[in-house]
Structures
1.
Amino acid sequence: MDYRLTLAFRGTAYAGWQRQKNALAVQQVVEEAVGDLVGYPLRLHGASRTDAGVHADGQTAHLSLTKPFPEKGLVHGTNHRLPSDIRVTAAHRMPIGFHARKSVLGKEYVYRLFNGRVVPPTIAPITVPAPPDLETGVMRQAICRVIGHHDFSAFALAGGSHTQPWRTLFAATVHEDGRRLCFRFIGDGFLRGMVRALVGTLIEVGRGKRDASSISTLLEGRPRSEAGPSAEARGLTLERVYYGPQWQPLAGYEA
């Protein structure tokens, strides 16, 4: 039986989602918890390989079980075995052929800044202090340029999909709510480090260190060195993973 789990986690203590030999990753922790629940080892397949320190509210992963298991039991039984910074928020039984990564239609990422010298402790683990001279209006002009189908090589870290650097962004916005500043990106896929590089470059635009028009030039397949620095990992959260209507769950439970 194939199941899809929806997961939320604070990535501060982990080396990203993907299981690694020499560091603790979210995938390993969840696999061990579910394996302990069902009584045998298993492998999870995640929708997104989040980097070290990056968080998630809507990561998804699929797994195959040898026999049916109650969806509610998967959620609460796994959570009982997980540390407090990782939670399963939903479990759904899926049709044959579903794959958490290969069936993805789109993903949504959010990057959070706080425009003040002291970040409130309630949001500090997932929010980065903004530079004091940041101009939001010019960043809005610049971020519109990344919407569409482009070569994002200038925003890809080493080890990313450099042989396939073309991605489509359906939406890209900068939203200001008091002192909170939120960058939101929705696309069909993202290169390794792409969102953090985009945010770092947009921050340079907001500080007057580069023109908004330079974003269009960077999208012509320029090298990574021509774009801005990568923003800190702790400001980035994977908010949601989108799937097409053909992947409607057969049954499910949401906490």
2.
Amino acid sequence: MILDTLRTYRLALGTLASMGLLQALLYTRLPDPMPTHWNAFGQIDGTLAKPWGVWILPLVFTVVVSAMTLLPALSPSQFPMAPFARIYRAVVAIVAGLGLWITFLVDAVALGLPLSVPRQTLCAVGLLLVVLGNWMGKITRNFYFGIRTPWTLADVHVWDRTHRLAGPLVMLAGLATAVLAAWQPRLGLVALLLGSGLAFGVPAAYSWWISPRTHGLPPEDFE
């Protein structure tokens, strides 16, 4: 099972290894303490001493990606993730890639390069949402990934219709986040919070509205 997991998620795991290699190569050149937090104006307002300041991001993303690789094996048999396995592997790899990108940005700023970590990070998150939104309609009903409400989990038709609605909304939220963050990071953050809230909240409410149980119908009679 371990070897199968390593093969299945080799791109994501290779990206995590690249993150660790980057930190190992730059460790002696990176300052102590390391910048770890930026305020809404893009100014550094938090630091962390070595070695945690250097390794905190690789550790966090290693935990996140490792947990994601375990979810398909933990999914109940009635909610398999195999039908969209390729999409899920790509999402895990993108999350690992986001970690590598943020780690690179933090290192670059720590070494004196004039980059905006909030701007570049929000742009990357926005693009991730665009990609995810494009795939939403292809995600089949499962227990861990997607818009999981009592109504989407109870009825495959509700799941499909909910995610077809969510796809364009998530893409719009991501596009707004990336565009506004490139102009002004604070606006990008607002777009991310509000846009994501609407992009996932509206379909969740929609799943309740279209559920056959909402209308007092048995699932087999609902189309």
3.
Amino acid sequence: MPTLHTRPLAPPIAAEAPAVPAAPGGRPRDPQRHPVEVRPSAIDGLGAFALAPIPARAKIGEVRGEPVSIAEAERRARAAERATGRIMMIAVSQRRAIDATHSQDPLRYANHSCAPNVVLRTEQGRAAFYALRDIDAGEELTLRYGETHHAGRLACRCGAPRCAGRL
């Protein structure tokens, strides 16, 4: 869901989102394993960019947010689209989603591409991002959104040579 920074209703995994384990001192652990920054994207709005090289198959990090029901995620998505045009939801099971609207995790800005360099996997109710190939420092992190609420009505702006043209 690129133009609107929406997130797909990812393939379900029947698990609820556990809390991120605490670091020493009771602080939540930082889910980012590789440095990522948010900056303007040629694809759309803001994007997530690698600050250092990332090896293929490496876990880059996670997106956290408020766990909500799928029905609540759909309600919030409709309201957010009307209000701001930006939707940041990730389905993590058939019943639960993560509302990343207020998350500080930079990967929530990963844009769609028909030739992605990152894959989103739901693991035990968490949204984790992995490198599909070696990624250079400065490269935008992109993923294939999969099924979106746009149902083919939104033009894709990824610019990939074999772009599908629509989301």
